[in-house]
Amino acid sequence: MNIWKYAFFTLVIVLIGGAGAAYYAITASGERAPVAVAKPMDGFDVTLATSNEELEQVASYFITKALDGNDMPFSVEVDELLHLTTAIPTFFGETDVTMSFAPTVNPAGQIVLEQKAFKAGRLAVSPSIAMGLVERVLTLPDWLAMYPRDEQIIIDLEKAPLENNLHARAKSIELKDGAVHFDVTIPKGE
């Protein structure tokens, strides 16, 4: 065999190995989503019911608070899924990014967002790859945890910045019916 054939096959193997290593580095997050257990809270419990439109407003409020002064444009839409749309700067100008999630509630009252789709412009990207990149680039607040291997984001409302020392848990989320329920605990006076 000619030396150029060896060089060509060696180059092909190196490129395939490099692509595999890059894929593994992006998608291999060591953490898995933990199994959460509800903690009892002392105080007066109130159940709040909201609509999909009110959920959009609440989500926008917490995203704005999490961005902490960064002027990043975004919008939240709720239909059968929760859609978060933003624009990110790229070499070619601004690219629209849309993430779609199916929200559920775990036994601890945390909101679990299972990523269903991720689109950057016209390009559909694997949710686990997209979440792995986002996890490495963004600094997330302590009440929001991202698990790329499980394609999940967990929102711990007990750690979320609520005023007046209130504590909240999600009770149920039914986006098709437009019914979202939260349990809010008002602490007893000392």
Structural category: alpha+beta
Average pLDDT: 79
The unreliable regions are none
- The whole-angstrom Rg is 21 Å
Number of domain modules: 1
Q: Specify the overall morphology.
A: elongated
Please report the distance between the alpha carbons of the first and last residues.
86 Å
The helix fraction, in percent, is 25-40%
Main sheet summary: 7 strands, antiparallel
> How many strands?
10
Number of helices: 3
How much of the residues is beta strand, in percent? 35-45%
| Pattern of helices and strands | HEHEEEEEHEEEE
Could you give a quick summary of the protein structure above?
With 190 residues, the protein is of the alpha+beta class.
Report on the structure:
The chain has one domain (44-186). It is built from 3 helices and 10 strands; from the N terminus they run αβαβββββαββββ. The protein is elongated and about 85 Å long. Strands 2, 3, 4, 5, 6, 7 and 8 form a 7-stranded antiparallel sheet that branches. Strands 1-10-9 form a 3-stranded antiparallel sheet. The chain has helices at 3-27, 52-67, 127-137, and strands at residues 44-50, 74-78, 82-90, 93-105, 111-120, 123-124, 144-147, 152-155, 167-174, 179-186. The protein has 190 residues and is α+β, with helices and mostly antiparallel strands. A hairpin with a 3-residue loop joins strand 2 and strand 3. The termini are far apart.
